Amino acid sequence: MAHRVTLIPGDGIGPEITAAARQVLDASGAEIEWEVVEAGEKVIPEYGTPLPEHVLDSIRRNRVALKGPLTTPIGHGFRSVNVTLRQELDLYACVRPAKTLPGIKTRFDHVDLIVVRENTEDLYAGIEHRVGKNAAESIKIVTREASTRIVRFAFELARREGRRKVTAVHKANIMKLTDGLFLECAREVAAEYPDIAFEEMIVDAMCMKLVQSPENYDVIVTLNLYGDIISDLAAGLVGGLGVAPGANIGDEAAVFEPVHGSAPKHAGQDKVNPLATILSGVMMLKHLGEMEAAERVMRGIIGVLQEGKALTYDLGGSARTSEMAAAIVAHMQK
Ligand code: NAD
Questions:
Q1: One GO molecular-function annotation for this sequence (predicted)?
Q2: Whose CA is nearest to atom 30 of ligand 1?
C-alpha cells in the first residue's frame, strides 16, 4: 500500500536537499505518494504567514511529513516557524540519532546514540519579561504530564530499537523542583521497563562524558534546553550538521527533517550535503514500517561513503548534491 507523505521543500537549500532525498526514497522500494506543499519565507507574500493553515492540514491528514529547513524572517514579528509547527501539531518528542558513519573523519569510532528531547515546555515556553531596566526573568515550566510522556517515549523507542540503556539527563541538584519533578517522573517510568537499564546523569557531567566516551551511551532523554545543546554536541561527535538527521514526533503526526537550517548562502548551488535529509528519510521509512527500504537506503549511503568518490565539500569531496544522491541510488541498485 502506498504511503501518502507531505513534502515541504522549504527555504534556501531546502528544495535541493529534499529533491535529493525524494529521488533516493523513490528508489528505496517503498511506495510513497508525495503531497508537495510550500511553506516558509517564499509563501509570505501570498499567505501573509510562513506557515499557512493548508500546510498544517496536509500534515494532519497524512500524519507524516518530510520537511526541508524553513527560514525564520528576522525582525518581521514572526515566531520561529519551526517552533510554531511543533506546537500546532503537538510534536512533543524531538528525536536525533547520532551514529558513526564509515568514511567520515571524526575523533570517535563507535558512537551510536539517540537523543530524545522534550519539545514543548521548559524554558522554551517563551514566558519572559523584563523586571525594570536592569533585569529580566524567564519562567521554566515542567509538568508531570510532559515529563512522563517524553520518558515513556524514550523507553518505548529503546524497546522497539533493541537498545540496552536509557540515560535521563537533568540538573536536579540545583533546580530541585523543576528538574526534580522531571527526574521523579523518569524514575517512575523506568520502573515499568525492567528489561532496559536506566541511569541518571547531571547535564554538565553528561557533556564531559559524551566527549570522553560517547560509545557508553545509548538513548538519552532530557528536558528541552539540555536536549537542544546535547543533540548538537552529539551531531558534532559524528561529523556535524551535514549528517545530522532528526524527527519531531507526536501522537497524531511526525515530521522528519535535517537538524541544520536553510543555509541561504549556499542556496541554488547544488553543493550542500543531502545526507542529513536522506537520513531523516530513513527514519521516516522506519516510522512507516518500511524496514527493508530503510536498510536499502542505508546500504546505498554506506556504499557511497566507503567508496569516497561522490562526497560533498563538507566531507572533503567536490561532488554536487545531485551527484551524491545519484551515487546513493546507484549503490542501492547494486
Ligand atoms: P544553517 O544550519 O542553515 O547553516 C549554518 C552553516 O552550516 C551553513 O552556512 C553551512 O556552512 C553549514 N551547513 C548547513 N547545512 C549544511 C549541509 N546540508 N551541507 C553542508 N553544510 C551545511 O544555520 P543558520 O545559518 O544559523 O540558519 C539559517 C536559517 O535557517 C535561519 O533562518 C534559521 O532560522 C533557519 N533554521 C531552520 C531550521 C529548521 O527548519 N529546522 C533549523 C535551524 C535553522
A1: magnesium ion binding
A2: 261
- Residue-wise pLDDT for 116-160, tens only, equals 999 999 998 878 999 999 999 999 999 999 999 999 999 999 999
Quick check: pTM over 0.70? yes
Residues with C-beta less than 6 Å from any ligand 1 atom: 69-72, 82, 241-242, 257, 260-263, 265, 272-273, 276, 314
Catalytic residue among 171, 218, 226, 271: 171
pLDDT tens digits, residue range 78-126? 677 888 899 899 999 999 999 999 989 889 989 999 999 999 999 988 7
Q: At what angle do helices 14-26 and 291-307 cross, to 10 degrees?
A: 120
Question: Is 313 a known active-site residue?
Answer: no
